[in-house]
């Protein structure tokens, strides 16, 4: 389906089902961790094959974030009460063939840019 990796290649991942929920997250946590907007999609957790040792960070009471302990690439986001896992589209190897579906947490977006692409937005 879709393959990706961190910057140094220590972590590789592959989806076993078509990704869904293509979004750009504008929340303050994603902005701080990624340095900007974080683009992601999700698959059922059982359908994401990960090679390498992911460093999991509990970022809130409801979710954790996965990154590479070597290069620091922010790769995964996982809600505690869901059976899906989001992965970074920026870490995808080659074209994804996906289309942006939504912008999320736009109330937290940076004041240095506007969202003008016409894609649905949620606060």
From TrEMBL:
<feature type="domain" description="CENP-V/GFA">
    <location>
        <begin position="2"/>
        <end position="114"/>
    </location>
</feature>
<keyword id="KW-0862">Zinc</keyword>
<dbReference type="Pfam" id="PF04828">
    <property type="entry name" value="GFA"/>
</dbReference>
<keyword id="KW-0479">Metal-binding</keyword>
<dbReference type="GO" id="GO:0046872">
    <property type="term" value="F:metal ion binding"/>
</dbReference>
<comment type="similarity">
    <text>Belongs to the Gfa family.</text>
</comment>
<dbReference type="GO" id="GO:0016846">
    <property type="term" value="F:carbon-sulfur lyase activity"/>
</dbReference>
<dbReference type="InterPro" id="IPR006913">
    <property type="entry name" value="CENP-V/GFA"/>
</dbReference>
<protein>
    <submittedName>
        <fullName>Uncharacterized conserved protein</fullName>
    </submittedName>
</protein>
<keyword id="KW-0456">Lyase</keyword>
<dbReference type="InterPro" id="IPR011057">
    <property type="entry name" value="Mss4-like_sf"/>
</dbReference>
């Amino acid at each position: 389906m879709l393959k990706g990796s961190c910057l140094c290649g220590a972590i590789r991942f592959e989806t076993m089902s078509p990704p869904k929920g293509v979004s750009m997250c504008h929340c303050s946590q994603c902005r701080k961790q990624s340095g900007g907007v974080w683009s992601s999609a999700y698959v059922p957790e059982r359908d994401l094959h990960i090679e390498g040792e992911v460093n999991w960070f509990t970022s809130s009471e409801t979710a954790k974030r996965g990154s590479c302990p070597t290069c620091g690439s922010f790769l995964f986001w996982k809600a505690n009460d869901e059976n899906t896992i989001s992965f970074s589209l920026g870490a995808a190897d080659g074209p994804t063939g996906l289309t942006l579906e939504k912008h999320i947490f736009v109330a937290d977006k940076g004041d240095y840019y506007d969202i003008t692409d016409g894609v649905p937005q949620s606060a």
